[in-house]
Write a structure and sequence with these properties.
heterodimer, A: four-stranded antiparallel sheet, 11 strands, B: mainly beta, six-stranded mixed sheet, globular
């Protein structure tokens, strides 16, 4: 069974840092592009970042550019999101999501999400 | 960046009703359009991709159509388990923007 499990969320003060992890299983992780998507409490889905299968192509939403960094370790079947200079508006559930194929494809597998709360 | 809009933002319909949700892209995106269902407290689930292709396991009462800038999700006969928020998403290039969502409730 294909599965994604996020971890690393928690409470952090404004300006602080946090590193999220996403552990993949049940599929060949190194073959798939991956994403982070977030959802603020009571709000809609917001795409945050993308990384290609090799880890050398990355894209970010304007709202996080320069503060959040996506990365992956294919040997460990893991995806990461380094979050720096956090703001209150970054408070959300963060999901990792797998592309269904290569190239431009939708997200067929989602993790359960990890909650990030930015507050003093 | 390409913006995605959805209408209505919410709707209430009776069991068995035909429900139509529309999604519009501010620029043409071909058929690189997906629909997701998110039930209350749950993770989003892929329903339709390539504008009209049903994801495996999704009931046939769901259908999608459109291309370019205008897209439609139809639930042919609304069921109680369809209570959810539905999101469209463009995935042809970054940013892979989601629409604001349409909340579907039972009347």
């Amino acid at each position: 069974e294909m599965q994604l499990v996020e971890s690393g969320g928690g409470l952090v003060q404004p300006g602080g840092s946090l590193r999220l992890s996403c552990a993949a299983s049940g599929f060949i992780f190194s073959s798939y592009e991956m994403n982070w998507v977030r959802q603020a409490p009571g709000k809609g889905l917001e795409w945050v970042s993308y990384i290609n299968s090799g880890g050398n192509k990355k894209y970010y939403a304007d709202s996080v550019e320069g503060r959040l960094t996506i990365s992956r370790d294919n040997a460990k079947n893991s995806l990461y999101l380094q979050m720096n200079n956090l703001r209150a508006e970054d408070t959300a559930v963060y999901y990792c999501a797998k592309d269904s194929g290569s190239g431009a494809t939708p997200f067929d597998i989602w993790g359960q999400g990890t909650m990030v709360t930015v507050s003093s | 960046d390409i913006q995605m809009t959805q209408s209505p933002s919410s709707l209430s319909a009776s069991v068995g009703d035909r429900v139509t949700i529309t999604c519009r892209a501010s620029q043409g995106i071909g058929n690189y359009l997906a629909w997701y269902q998110q039930k209350p407290g749950k993770v989003p689930n892929l329903l339709i991709y390539a504008a009209s292709t049903l994801q495996s396991g999704v009931p046939s009462r769901f259908s999608g159509s459109g291309s370019g800038t205008d897209f439609t999700l139809i639930i042919s006969s609304l069921q109680p388990e369809d209570v959810a928020t539905y999101y469209c998403q463009r995935y042809n290039s970054a940013p892979r923007t989601f629409g604001p969502g349409t909340k579907v409730e039972i009347k």
